[in-house]
């Protein structure tokens, strides 16, 4: 039920975004952007980019700024669900190393979530470099979380960290197109 509500909320947010950026420029070519993003990054695949963005209403109609906004919102949604998963894991963890790593992740994903919200505001105000810096900071949060587990020799129970990292990198790539 919670995930259905979250999905509905995301779709609603995307619709609002689409209406907020009407015709601010030519519509972004989703396939072309995904191709360029995947060829410019060793971590990004064309399929990840396309499957992340294509199902969202409006991604074919918005301009590049609108697509950047949609991608930031996807990142926020990912970070929020990852934070919920971290909180659940923290309540069940018994091993101190796991607890320590989860605490680091909780703090970093909280910071990353705040950075993404700043990025969204900055993008809306056409502060492109600020938006880019904030998205990159959020991507770093996902990396720090993954490292918190690997440095302790623990397999991360949070698979969402990789998607968060990739979504932030995708948002950064699209924002760079605006610079």
From TrEMBL:
Pectinesterase inhibitor domain span: 37-174
Keywords (A to Z) from UniProt: Disulfide bond, Signal
Recorded family membership: Belongs to the PMEI family.
Organism: Dioscorea zingiberensis
GO molecular function terms noted in the UniProt entry: enzyme inhibitor activity
InterPro entries in the record: Invertase/methylesterase_inhib, Pectinesterase_inhib_dom, Pla_a_1-like
One Pfam match: PMEI
This protein's name: Pectinesterase inhibitor domain-containing protein
Signal peptide stretch: 1-27
């Amino acid at each position: 039920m919670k995930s259905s509500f979250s999905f509905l909320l995301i779709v609603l947010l995307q619709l609002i975004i689409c209406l907020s950026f009407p015709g601010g420029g030519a519509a972004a070519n989703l396939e072309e952007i995904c191709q360029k993003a995947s060829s410019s990054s060793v971590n990004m695949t064309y399929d990840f980019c396309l499957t992340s963005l294509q199902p969202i209403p409006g991604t074919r109609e918005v301009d590049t700024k609108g697509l950047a906004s949609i991608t930031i919102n996807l990142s926020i949604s990912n970070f929020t669900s990852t934070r919920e998963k971290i909180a659940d894991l923290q309540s069940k963890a018994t091993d101190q190393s796991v607890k320590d790593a989860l605490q680091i992740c909780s703090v970093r994903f909280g910071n990353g979530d705040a950075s993404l919200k700043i990025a969204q505001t900055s993008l809306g105000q056409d502060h492109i470099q600020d938006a880019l810096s904030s998205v990159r900071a959020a991507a770093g949060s996902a990396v720090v979380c993954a490292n918190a587990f690997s440095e302790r020799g623990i397999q991360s129970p949070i698979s969402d960290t990789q998607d968060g990292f990739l979504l932030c990198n995708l948002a950064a790539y699209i924002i760079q197109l605006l610079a």
